[in-house]
Amino acid sequence: MGEQQETLIARLSEWIQESSKIVFFGGAGVSTESGIPDFRSQDGLYHTKYRYPPEMIISHSFFVRNPEEFYRFYKDRMLYPDAEPNDAHKALAAWEAEGRLRSVITQNIDGLHQKAGSRRVLELHGSVLRNYCTRCKKAFPLEYVMQAEGIPCCDACGAIVKPDVVLYEESLDDRILREAVRDISEADMLIVGGTSLVVYPAAGLIDYYRGKRLVLINKDETARDSAADLCIHGKIGEVFRQVREQESRRP
Ligand code: NAD
Fold first, then answer.
1. Which residue minimizes the CA distance to atom 31 of ligand 1?
2. Residue 66 vs residues 69, 72, 123: alpha-carbon distances, Å
3. Which of 48, 79, 89, 205 is the least buried, fewest Cβ under 10 Å from its Cβ?
4. Which ligand 1 atom is nearest residue 40's CA?
5. Whose CA is nearest to atom 19 of ligand 1?
6. Digits of tens for pLDDT over the chain (251 positions)?
7. If you ran DSSP here, which 8-state letter would residue 78 be given?
8. Which of 38, 41, 89, 232 to mutate to test the pocket of ligand 1 (most atoms within 8 A of CB)?
9. How far is the CA of 26 from the centre of ligand 1 (A)?
10. Domains in the chain: boundaries
11. Is 47 a catalytic residue?
12. In whole angstroms, what separates CA 82 from the centre of its chain?
């Protein structure tokens, strides 16, 4: 680790120690170290070859028009039931338990923050773990969708089952959005990590932060790097592991 990186991590660690209302806002990059590909990295989902572009397949109109193709892609590329939380998820859960962190706001749909022990998780884009019948609203677990051959249909009424995931063209849950805005505007520190900050309205959330400790942690550069009070380029699981190590060495 370069000297400059070490200084940045030491500052991050110090700020975390001094905070009691941290909000973390993250995206797909938080789960790549758990083996789940993101969308926009070089080895991300958008660079794979498919009959239709992924952005089109995971849109609401495509789901309605061509559910078979939707589910072929979705089951093949978006479900990772065996993935385990990495050091980023674990550090966030620990900071919440220690009373430093107030909430995790995530664009991810994989449920790994909860699996790591985080309690207040605002899922802006829903979760693959929840699925509902589009007609009678009966709930189904992930296994039901995975085990269905082709399109999963409701065992009560026969209608198609849809994941509780916000597809392109669909709007975000108003209540979750309002809570996210409130948490961010009251935060004493905002850590943004593993997101390309290009998917709106989620990416616009960081504008509600009013404090002086905006931290950006991302593998690649983002359009918002220059707005950050602290910007670290690196893998977020590794960065947080180093922060936790520094914490454990404190007297
Ligand atoms: P994105 O794919 O647009 O961007 C991911 C960003 O994370 C990139 O800038 C990349 O450089 C960075 N990154 C990758 N690995 C990293 C690491 N280990 N440490 C730090 N940074 C890393 O993803 P996004 O901004 O979250 O937005 C796209 C949409 O992708 C979201 O709506 C989300 O629902 C969906 N998505 C979710 C999952 C998941 O649930 N795990 C996976 C893929 C996509």
1. 107
2. 6, 10, 26
3. 48
4. 2
5. 235
6. 666 989 999 999 999 999 999 999 999 999 999 999 988 766 666 666 677 888 899 999 999 999 999 999 999 999 999 999 999 999 999 999 999 999 999 999 999 999 999 999 999 999 999 999 999 999 999 999 999 999 999 999 999 999 999 999 999 999 999 999 999 999 999 999 999 998 887 789 999 999 999 999 999 999 899 999 999 999 999 999 999 999 998 77
7. T
8. 38
9. 8
10. 1-36+84-125+170-251, 37-79, 130-165
11. no
12. 17
Q: Tokens 């709930």 appear where?
A: 139
Which residue is associated with the tokens 């409701």?
154
User: Considering the domain 1-36+84-125+170-251 in this protein, what is its CATH number?
Assistant: 3.40.50.1220
Question: Are the CB atoms for 156 and 126 separated by under 8 Å?
Answer: no
For residue 97, the surrounding DSSP H or E stretch is helix 87-97
Distance between Cα 155 and ligand 1 center (Å): 34
Contact 109, 145 (CB under 8 A): no
**Residue among 60, 89, 113, 125 flagged as catalytic:** 125
Rounded to two decimals, the pTM is 0.95
